[in-house]
Specification:
Blueprint lengths: L1 E7 L3 H4 L6 H16 L3 E7 L9 H5 L16 H4 L7 E3 L5 H8 L4 E9 L1 H15 L5 E9 L3 H13 L3 E3 L2
Parallel strand pairs: 1-2, 1-4, 2-3, 4-5, 5-6
Helix pairs in contact: 6-7
């Protein structure tokens, strides 16, 4: 049985860049520790947008250019990227169908744990997408290794995931 860790969008723009928060900055050392001590496979997702971002559905609703492919803000935080042993999964929207394709190549999955940013957007979206395809595999979210757009929306997302039978640890 293998354990999987999904590190969601730990990118510069979400940490201390265009959409950064002090809560996101604060979790970086803890996320690093989780990755370093995880006994299993680790995959990273990377929010990916292009120069036309402001003309997209998301860009019209969140008019803050961020995670534009090739920019410093798009890069995974250096101290975390140094730990990466697999290709990042570039995702064009909140939840990733490509993540499912990567997971389909894994056999005998014991559990899938999520950490990263933002709890209330991409962490919850990816956890729910994975739940659809793997309803019998325990899904775990490490609350201490996640941060939301606001502390309040972080807490609401954790509660929503609990209702959907996703285990939340380290609250």
């Amino acid at each position: 049985m293998s354990k999987i860790l999904i590190v969601v969008d730990m990118q510069n723009d979400f940490i201390d860049g265009a959409l950064g928060t002090k809560e996101a900055v604060a979790i970086v050392p803890y996320v690093k520790n989780v990755i370093e001590n995880f006994d299993g496979k680790v995959f990273f997702t990377r929010d990916t947008h292009f120069e036309n971002y402001l003309q997209t559905q998301e860009g019209m609703n969140l008019p803050v250019p961020h995670c534009i492919k090739g920019t410093d803000g798009w890069q995974i935080r250096a101290e975390l990227d140094a730990l990466r042993t697999t290709d990042a999964i570039d995702k064009l929207t909140f939840g990733s169908s490509d993540l499912i394709e990567v997971l389909k190549k894994e056999t005998d999955i014991e559990s899938i744990t999520f950490v990263g940013l933002c709890t209330d957007i991409c962490v919850i979206s990816n956890a729910m997408v994975v739940k659809v395809f793997y309803p019998e595999i325990p899904l775990i979210v490490d609350a201490k290794a996640c941060a939301g757009v606001t502390p309040e929306s972080h807490k609401r997302a954790l509660e929503a995931m609990k209702i959907c039978q996703i285990k939340v640890i380290n609250e």
